[in-house]
Structures are given as C-alpha cells and as structure tokens.
C-alpha cells in the first residue's frame, strides 16, 4: 500500500474564530481516521507564488484512507465550523513508491 499525503494550504483567513473552531475539530478527526501530522503552521519561507499562511501536511497509509478522512463525519463537522472563515487549497497526493 502506498502512503498518501494531505496538503492543506490556507490562501487567506477571514475569520480567526472560525479557524480556531475548525482546528479544534479537524485535528481529532484526522487522527481518528489514521492521519499523522507531519507539519503544520505558517511556512518559515515562501517562494514564487507561495502564500505565507497556515499549511498542514498529514500522512495517511493510502489515498483511500485520506479520502475517507475528508468524508468522515468528524471532518465534515470541522468544515461546517470553518464555514466561510478561510479560503483553502487542499489536495491529496500519493507518495512515490
């Protein structure tokens, strides 16, 4: 099974309170779905079209596990809490085997 990585970049945050509520719910939902946080926070440096906003990288055992985490009840609750509080770019990529 090939590992997968969830890469979530926040392009902008318009409501820090909603973001805090999202973080409180999303972390436990990701861990409950088998995700392992590898990095999270504001980038130390950005280049080219990079945005200096919160970025999160989570490792999963497979693409299917990462997609199931996104679709989980717990993560959907986190998304509802975030609402329109941030613009994000989220992708799941498969590791090189």
Question: Summed up, what is this model?
Answer:
This protein has helices spanning 16-32, 63-71, 73-82; strands at residues 4-13, 36-41, 55-60, 86-94.
Give your account of this protein's structure.
The structure is a single chain. The chain is an alpha+beta fold and 97 residues long. The chain has one domain (4-94): Alpha-Beta Plaits (2-Layer Sandwich). The protein is 37% helix and 32% strand. It has three helices and four strands, in the order βαββααβ. It has helices at 16-32, 63-71, 73-82; strands spanning 4-13, 36-41, 55-60, 86-94. Helix 1 (16-32) packs antiparallel against helix 3. The longest helix is centred in the first third of the chain and has 17 residues, at 16-32.
Order of helices and strands: EHEEHHE
CATH architecture: 2-Layer Sandwich
The pLDDT mean sits at 96
Structural category is alpha+beta
Largest sheet: 4 strands, antiparallel
Determine Rg (CA atoms, Å). Answer: 13 Å
Beta strand %? 25-35%
Total count of strands? 4
The low-pLDDT segments are none
CATH topology: Alpha-Beta Plaits
User: Number of helical segments?
Assistant: 3
- Total domain modules: 1
Shape: globular
Query: What's the helical proportion of residues?
Result: 25-40%
The first-to-last residue Cα distance is 9 Å
- Enumerate the strands of the largest sheet in spatial order, edge to edge or round the barrel: 2-3-1-4
Q: What's the CATH class label?
A: Alpha Beta
